[in-house]
Amino acid sequence: MKPAARELTTYRPKMPLTIPAGMAPVEFFNSPANLKNLAEENGLFRTPEDLLMYRKLIGHSIEFDTSIILDTSKRILDPLGRPVRRDQMPRQQKKVWNKMTQIIFEYMLEKYPDPAESLILCGEASLDATWPLNKPGVPSIRMIHNHFMVFPMVDLENAKLANPNDANLTDSGHHSLFLRHLSGIYHEFLEILDLQILSPISTSESSFKLTGYPQGLPCWEVKGGAKKLKDQYFWYEYEQVLLGFLDFYRTFFSLVSTGEPKIPTQANFPQQIAEVLLESARFQRVARDLREQVIQDPQFANEIRWRPAYKQVLYRDDQGRLIVTISQNSVGNAITELLGIVIKREENDDAYRAAEPALLERLLDVRTRLIEANLGEPIATPSWPEGKFFSPSKTD
């Protein structure tokens, strides 16, 4: 069968939330009140560094699905003043973030050892000071988060084909900038990174064979496999990939915004920006064309994220290799779509409750490893008496 994006239906429960009158659902879900609910109703684990692990009640997978968010909502009240990327985190905070990511990802690899049976990924993204200020439902959470997911391959194989023009798959039309128009120079620019553990791998080799994604994005293989996740130098290189991406993004959208080619003041690789990006006629032409489209099309202009917005993904490919890639994160685009998987959530309380005990057992298992690593404390809430999950059928 020819590789193609898939549309997977994932069940979710009825939401036990009361949305205030006069407030749109998207406004509530992007509000501090929702973050408070995440901790109180679905929180699993919290560290002294404000890192909160919780289950995704409106998630992507009922096999394994959890997130870590940097919850500074009570400490930093200005939403625009909160960290939204790993390069904005203090050293100790970042160290614990990396350790939690390593432990959870290793758990998924151990629990799901066969790449032919399970797709494993985690995706780090800005959430979400980058959202256009004139976009309805502007998020006020605005903090970095990491999302961990497992999908049974049989479910993906049986899923229907997705519409290739789905707004999520195409980043509302923006993803094509990096793929169809700037792919070559994007790859060339990121070749400047001096990496030892992360080794460039071609798009054809790194793609998830069922879907053919990620398409045209620079990818790196983790040489040495899972054991390298314990190496602090791996996380240094992981951040270098982000820093290179930030330079590319800022340079391009500054050019779109002002029409003036210049090196951003906070550039990480200024010489390469000058020599690779600003010397490229194609880079400048694509920016000029996009600038004109923004001026002429108010609907398109409303979708632009002027501040750097990214999705950095670590996943296991069909051959069992660990692959890193990074892409821009436009409005409406989720982590899974980078691998060609569109999630359609369907409210089905019975189906979700049937899967819930096994899902929560796995989440509590991995939480135990975080506790044993002495990274923080389990959360005991009304929904988690004594920090444990009790099936609704047992507590009625």
Please give a structural write-up.
The protein is an alpha+beta fold. It has one domain. Helix content is 37%, strand content 18%. The protein has 13 helices and 13 strands. The protein has helices at 25-29, 32-42, 91-111, 153-158, 175-181, 183-190, 203-206, 232-258, 270-277, 281-296, 298-301, 349-372, 392-395, and strands at residues 6-12, 43-46, 51-55, 64-70, 118-125, 145-152, 160-161, 198-201, 219-222, 310-316, 322-328, 341-347, 377-378. The strands form two sheets. Strands 8-9-11-10-5-6-4-3-2-13 form a ten-stranded antiparallel sheet. A hairpin with a 4-residue loop joins β2 and β3 (51-55). α3 (91-111) crosses α12 (349-372) and α8 crosses α10. The radius of gyration is 21 Å and the shape is globular. Mean pLDDT is 86; it is low at 392-396.
Write the layout of secondary structure elements.
Blueprint: E1 6-12, H1 25-29, H2 32-42, E2 43-46, E3 51-55, E4 64-70, H3 91-111, E5 118-125, E6 145-152, H4 153-158, E7 160-161, H5 175-181, H6 183-190, E8 198-201, H7 203-206, E9 219-222, H8 232-258, H9 270-277, H10 281-296, H11 298-301, E10 310-316, E11 322-328, E12 341-347, H12 349-372, E13 377-378, H13 392-395
Parallel strand pairs: 1-12
Antiparallel strand pairs: 1-7, 2-3, 2-13, 3-4, 4-6, 5-6, 5-10, 8-9, 9-11, 10-11
Chain-averaged pLDDT = 86
Instruction: Kindly report the spatial arrangement of strands forming the biggest sheet.
Output: 8-9-11-10-5-6-4-3-2-13
User: Could you list the spans in which at least 5 consecutive residues all have pLDDT below 50?
Assistant: 392-396
Rg, please? Answer: 21 Å
**What is the overall silhouette?**
globular
Question: How many structurally independent domains?
Answer: 1
The separation of the N and C termini measures 47 Å
Beta fraction: 15-25%
Helix content: 25-40%
Number of helices: 13
What string, H for helix and E for strand, traces the elements in order? EHHEEEHEEHEHHEHEHHHHEEEHEH
Class from helix and strand fractions: alpha+beta
Largest sheet: 10 strands, antiparallel
